[in-house]
Design a protein that fits this description.
Helix content is 40%, strand content 22%. By secondary structure, the protein is an alpha+beta fold. It is elongated.
């Protein structure tokens, strides 16, 4: 299974070397335990020895203690080497994930509007409506930032509350976690070491700005044991997210698609292993329901194994149709991370007297607000440059249309 997954991912993992490191580590654990037990027995006998034998025994024990200290040093080094090697190993891959790097389209939902005018993209609309300001944001923070103004700001808040109400009705607990997290949270969730270049680090503290609330929510329950009856536990995390977007120079630089700071509502589930496939489908259904309610045409992709992030066992993406840009745009992702994160973070559950098992963790973008606004503006634009608000969102916005001020 491991060799199959690494091959389908195209991951550069030397499994033979990893197995040998594990053997060395196990051998040293045994040697340390045996020598420690032998030394303990010898030390207990010292007081029972005659005086002429005692000095020799003490000398032998002293040498055994030095040998033990040396072995313990070797064990610590082997453990660190094994841990470092294991951190570079990505998750297993679901056998139904398409192999290679070509995603599989599962379905399309909704029909793009037939517009009797030439549609424009979200930035042209946003600037014309004076709700998106990237020029002044650049004065404040540089490129790849934006300011939402007026009804643009209200639209963001409306989308967040609209999504939260849907999720709370389905049993999700809303949480606003810290966005600054410890290094162990980044390693525990699998974002380090592979995605370290995408993450902002504070200069004076060992803290990182999370790119998704998945990180702090998963870390919330590290080293905890749930009862089976507590599961599944579902959270809706509301947070500002930060990504350096290293290596994406020139890609989606126009407007608010690929920015360094954005707001998001993230679904996160802890569940029992036998429930994780069904839970994955449930999260995806929530994502689809949101975009159907917003009246935005979309398609669902089953992400190829070679495109999966390190923590992902299987992932589905939703891409919305953008009539102004004349292309599809990823607006959500939905991942089953199996027991990968739980193993690193020590999150387990207990069922009766059968001991403990690792939980499975799953996450899904309920809404990445900026990208949802992009899709909403482009799909609901009118010939006069105005944008209508879909019916489901109107109780939250308090207005039905955003019109040019001129």
């Amino acid at each position: 299974m491991v060799a199959f997954s690494m091959r389908h991912r195209g991951a550069d993992v030397d499994l033979d070397a990893l197995i040998e490191l594990d053997r060395q580590h196990r051998r040293l654990v045994t040697d340390v335990d045996n020598l420690r037990a032998e030394l303990n027995r010898a030390q207990k006998l010292v007081g029972k020895l005659a005086a002429e034998e005692r000095s020799e025994a003490i000398a032998r024990n002293k040498q055994a203690g030095a040998d033990l200290k040396d072995l313990e040093g070797q064990l610590a080094g082997a453990a660190a080497e094994l841990d470092s090697a294991l951190l570079a190993v990505p998750n297993l891959v679901h056998p139904d994930s398409p192999p290679g790097r070509v995603d599989r389209e599962l379905r399309r939902v909704g029909t793009p509007r037939s517009m009797q005018f030439t549609p424009v993209d979200h930035l042209a609309l946003g600037e014309g409506l004076e709700i998106i300001d990237v020029k002044r944001a650049a004065k404040v923070s540089g490129s790849r930032f934006a300011i939402l103004r007026g009804k643009g700001a209200l639209l963001e808040l409306a989308i967040v509350r609209f999504v939260l109400d849907r999720l709370m009705a389905e049993g999700f607990e809303p949480v606003i976690p810290p966005v600054l997290v410890k290094e162990e949270a980044m390693y525990g969730t699998g974002f380090f070491p592979t995605d370290e270049a995408q993450v902002y680090k504070t200069a004076d503290d060992d803290l990182y700005l999370a790119g998704t609330s998945e990180v702090p929510i998963a870390m919330m329950h590290s080293d905890e044991i749930f009862s089976a009856g507590q599961l599944p536990i579902r959270y809706a995390g509301i947070s500002t997210c930060f990504r350096r977007e290293a290596g994406t120079y020139g890609k989606d630089t126009r407007g608010i698609i690929r920015v360094h700071q954005f707001d998001k509502v993230e679904m996160f589930s802890f569940c029992r292993p036998e429930e994780s496939d069904a839970e994955h489908g449930r999260l995806l259904a929530h994502e689809e329901g949101i975009f159907e309610a917003l009246e935005i045409p979309y398609r669902v992709l089953d992400i190829a194994s070679g495109e999966l992030a390190a923590p992902n066992y299987r992932k589905f993406d939703i891409e919305a149709w953008l009539p102004g840009a004349d292309r599809w745009l990823e607006v959500t992702s939905c991942s089953n991370d199996w027991d990968f994160q739980a193993r690193r973070l020590g999150v387990r559950f207990k069922q009766g007297d059968s001991g403990t098992e690792l939980v499975h963790t799953l996450n899904g973008t309920a809404v990445a607000v900026g990208r949802a606004i992009v899709a909403l503006l482009e799909n609901h634009q009118q010939s006069d440059g105005s944008v209508t608000i879909p019916d489901a969102l109107r109780p939250y916005t308090g207005f039905e249309v955003i019109s040019p001020k001129g």
